[in-house]
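## tool: complex_structure
## caller: assistant
## args:
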Amino acid sequence: MKCDHCNRPATVHLTEIRGGKKIEKHLCEQCAAQMEGLPVAKAHTPINELLTNFMMAHAGLQKEATVSCEHCGITMQEFRQNGLLGCPHDYDVFEEDLTRLLQKAHDGATHHTGKTPVRGGPGGTAPRRKVVDVARLRKELARAVELEDYEKAARLRDQIREAEQGGTASS
Amino acid sequence: MKLSDLTNHAGEWLRGSGPMSEIVISSRIRLARNIAGFPFMSRATAAQRQALEGRIRDVIFSVQLPPTLYVDLAAAPALDLELLVERHLISKPHAQAQGHRGVAITADETASIMVNEEDHLRMQVYRSGLQLEEAWEQINRIDDLLQSQLDYAFHPRFGYLTACPTNVGTGIRVSVMLHLPALKITGEIEKVFRAAKDLKLAVRGLYGEGTEALGDFYQISNQTTLGRSEEEIISDFRLEIIPKIVDYERHARRMLLNDRTVALDDKVCRALGLLRNARLLTSEETLYLLSHLRMGINLERVKDVKLSTVNELLQLTQPAHLQKLFGRKLEGDVRRAVRADFVRQRLNSN
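## result:
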């Protein structure tokens, strides 16, 4: 079947009901885009891009594709294509979007609580203070109580108290 | 130390010793690190890659690591790259990548430091059996030594920064390789997969990411790297996850031994019969047969073959190892015939 308006093959078939009357339209993609304002499908969207977009949309990522890192030039869209960031600064530039992604990937966690380097960053030599993820500790505490593991619960309670008093906590 | 010294024996982690070694083949811990002031690999120019490699290599040789061999992978022949993959000293993507990159390997092969992999640094330690604490102690020490000379990209909130956000935080990957033939035979292996998925663990094949399980060998590893400390992640594996799977496999083996003795013996003896008599063997079939033979030795159904012989064959019958051993390129039926000869000779001289 050919397009109602040009000679290209019709790939978009529309049925409209206007005033109780059925109107059928057979259009090619270009005419459909022009006349009906329908989006033109990209011819070859790689499957991994589709999947990443889906995953990102699911994670609620909305950062404009135009924002790019001034150090490495990467945009959120480019990151979506292969899942790799361009430089360490990206974690600050896209912090908001990445936080949502990290929560998905790391079981809700958004803060590092492990080892810290003695020399941190260029020129920095002071040891970093350990950051304690209080929100996670509280979750673990609730689970320990549920499982009646009171020994573990007591340990967690002390950790939370210590973190909150020590001022290094972040929830 | 030369690369060719590696070919005539299996890697240290295949020694078949250490706790639970009848089921736990090896323990591995890997750390991902990047150097501050440089872009990640995907955005690094050739000049930056070269500078990174030079700087890291200098540091590796300036700190007090045990005797170490450095292999320039950009200049290495394809067969050497394949050999390093078979010995788990580099990853498949690292072998296949382009440009300045390398690997430092300690003489005992327990540790390797990949330079310019997906991250600037990917260091790993392998141990035979379930020895995660020992592996952590060793890799942590190597990491401390390197960080005394290198400025790592570190974020107060996100921890060690990595090219892929799925590794950020601790940058740690704990992988334990398990041999689970009985659970496969009884059909209960699917339950292990499901439980692993619920615990956010990945189950992979012999050669890590993207490889399928061959010969009932499975790698179980963590996927969550942020929000928990290295010690917490490791102790989960050491005290909870691995002992449970090991118990489950032991139970399945006992069940086979008590209730399905003839069927068990049939599988084990067929495997040994084929390995001792076949004239052509593919690497896949060899792994499959060695897996059953290994279980037979563990259950004392086979008494005239040593476990160390089987462990060694697991590695030496791989394509690159065979070709290195025989000093020439082997393909198709010639390679399969050489493999069968080699296996026959090793098993009959036992």
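## assistant note: The two ends of chain A are 61 Å apart (CA to CA). Chain A touches chain B through 40 residues (CB under 8 Å). Handing back to user.
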